[in-house]
Amino acid sequence: MDTQTLIQLLGEGTVQTLIMTLVGTLVSYIIGLPVGVSLIVTGPNGIRPMPAYNKVMGFLVNVIRSMPFLILMIAFMPYIRMVIGTGIGTWATTSALILAAWPFVARMVEQSLLEVDPGVIEAAQAMGASNMQIIRKVLLLEARPSLLNGAAVATITILGYSAMAGTLGGGGLGDIAIRYGHYRFQPTIMWITIIVLVILVQIMQEIGIKLAAKMDNRIN
Amino acid sequence: MAEHIIRLQGVTKEFDTKGGKVVALKDINLDIERGDSYGIIGLSGAGKSTLVRTINLLEQPTEGKVIFNGSTLTGLGNKDLNLHRRRISMIFQQFNLLMQRDAIGNILFPLEIAGVPKAEALEKAQELLKVVDLEDRAHSYPSQLSGGQKQRIAIARALASDPEVILCDEATSALDPKTTRSILALLRKINEERGITLVVITHEMDVIKQLCNKVAVIEYGEIVERGEVSEIFKKPKTKAARKLFFPDGQSHEKPLTKTSTRNRVRLVFDEATAGEPIIANMIMEVGAPVNFLYANLDVLGGSQKGQMVICLAADRQTAEKQKEYLTAKGVEFIEIDEDETFGEEAEK
Ligand SMILES: Nc1ncnc2c1ncn2[C@@H]1O[C@H](COP(=O)(O)OP(=O)(O)OP(=O)(O)O)[C@@H](O)[C@H]1O
Ligand SMILES: [Mg+2]
Questions:
Q1: Domain containing A20 — which CATH number?
Q2: DSSP-based helix, strand, coil % in chain A, nearest 5
Q3: Which member of A125, A126, A217 has the closest CB to residue B99?
Q4: How many domains does chain A have?
Q5: 20 to 30 A from A143, CA-CA: which of A107, B39, B115, B338?
Q6: What is the distance, to the nearest Å, from the Cα of residue B179 to the centroid of all Cα atoms in its chain?
Q7: Nearest CA owner, ligand 1 atom 13
Q8: In whole angstroms, what is the distance from residue B274 CA to residue B306 CA?
Q9: pLDDT by residue (tens digit) across B169-225?
């Protein structure tokens, strides 16, 4: 393979990986963030305890989280094929990523919100804030630095998932590593994809940490 | 007739814990008048925090009624309750400021909740920063403020919603003595100038003395004694109140002697009786000496009050004469039981 083709191949792979990771993370947050918030709000010490909902949702999240991603993806594949018409390619993989990652995101969000000082929540209640106001103006804002750190961790985890999904014909850098690096035994390509993945993880981590620190008013 | 702004009627609060039921409040009846600075004092675990938290329903009473401004709060839905809660502010020992908002942002918070238009809210918040003397710290974050400054911001935040009542749960317990005095002075000013009713929870007698006109003593979830601070200071009836008002083991003044525990009396002087050398005159008049055990001077709600513990003559007849003399001179005194301790003895 000449350098030109290689660069093009890796370029496309990187773009696919980034799309899968970012879209996957975004949609996982669209689902996982409200679920995480609801787990805190309806918990035993929450502002609106709902034991039945809390138990059921907590159980669902735990079950999905305890399954290895690869197994989960294989299990979901037939259903994804049914819904979007194909079981391979970027969009099929992204769908699988989302199905596997939202519970992870929900737990990350829950952990971050747990760090919010209960005294501050109580102060807001004493002021006559509604539950919705407490969620928007107290929980999410006070936990913002921790949520951003969590988002960086979630993105990196989902990047890892997307690389694994590549092995199932999912596209992206993982796909390239398997097809060229493994089956055609081209170790150079294998190592290049690894280096690109490491660089992507480093960038995401840096952005997450910097953003979280910048948004945290407790230390500056 | 003075108007009752807060009434607690038969309020009982039980907590279910792993170790069984904990009764934190037992059948509490309490009326607080508009403009009062009402202290609630008791030892740790007596139920003070639980009591104050039932007033704004942060704690739902197991039984009984909470009435605010004539409306019964117990049993209200969240929406109606929240409207009343905006009239009752609260300040806390740990300040409970939003760490991600600056000082003025914290003061704006209750105004945002109430939906006050931005410009109006900002003007008000700025004015309140002046009230608490922190105009120059508008854009400091809580992590950049001292404890006293944080409590000032919390007080400004409490004032933002134009409350009728401010509940203070150990508002100065995390502060040093000097800062405590300035915060108490600020609260006193708010009570006097704005007519805002204060409910002051504390375990420190000094806070009551400096800030309150009335006080209730709470012990094991029950109010055992209540009334005007100056009255209870003069004549505490219950053991619990005596313990709180008498010189205690924490005091740096030690009793001069502990030779006798008999015939002790505690005298209270005020501006009317302090001008005359009453004890010296009594010694001359009756012709028998007394033993001084303890004396100090307090400022009670702005006026000076002295208290003194002396040991009267050992023989009953002379002691009777001494008491008669004191009564004739209008000095309030109470006899201290032989088994009651104070000062050094209390530490054991
Ligand atoms: N949420 C709770 N669950 C169980 N028990 C509680 C709870 N809150 C308070 N209690 C119990 O109720 C009693 C009164 O507590 P409270 O906090 O009102 O006391 P306090 O007078 O404010 O004490 P302190 O001066 O230490 O703050 C205590 O025995 C306490 O253990
Ligand atoms: Mg307490």
A1: 1.10.3720.10
A2: 80, 0, 20
A3: A217
A4: 1
A5: B115
A6: 17
A7: B24
A8: 8
A9: 999 999 999 999 999 999 999 999 999 999 999 999 889 999 999 999 999 999 999
d(CA B87, CA B232) in angstroms, rounded, equals 30
Distance CA B316, CA B26 (A): 42
Model ipTM? Answer: 0.88
Whole-number pLDDT of residue B348: 33
Domain span at residue B9 reads 4-244
**CA B226 to CA B30: how far, in whole Å?**
9
Look up residue B187 and give its amino acid.
L
- Same domain? B321 vs B182: no
B42 with B115, same domain: the answer is: yes
Residue B265 φ/ψ, nearest 5 degrees:
-130, 150
Residue B190 structure tokens: 């708010």
Tokens of A31: 């689902």
Note the pLDDT tens digit of each residue in A48-84.
999 999 999 999 999 998 988 888 888 888 888 888 8
- Which of B58, B98, B100 minimises the CB distance to A122? B58
Residues B206, B289 within the same domain: no
pTM of the predicted protein model: 0.86
Same domain, B63 and B157: yes
Domain span at A115: 3-219
Hey, what amino acid is at B10? G
Cβ separation of B143 and A218 shorter than 8 Å?
Answer: yes
Q: What is the mean pLDDT of residues A17-25?
A: 94
> What is the Cβ-side half-sphere exposure of residue B290, based on CA atoms within 13 angstroms?
29
Asked if B216 and B284 sit in the same domain, the reply is: no
Best mutation site among B80, B96, B104, B161 for testing chain A: the one with the most A CBs within 10 Å?
B96
**Chain-centroid distance, C-alpha B10:** 22
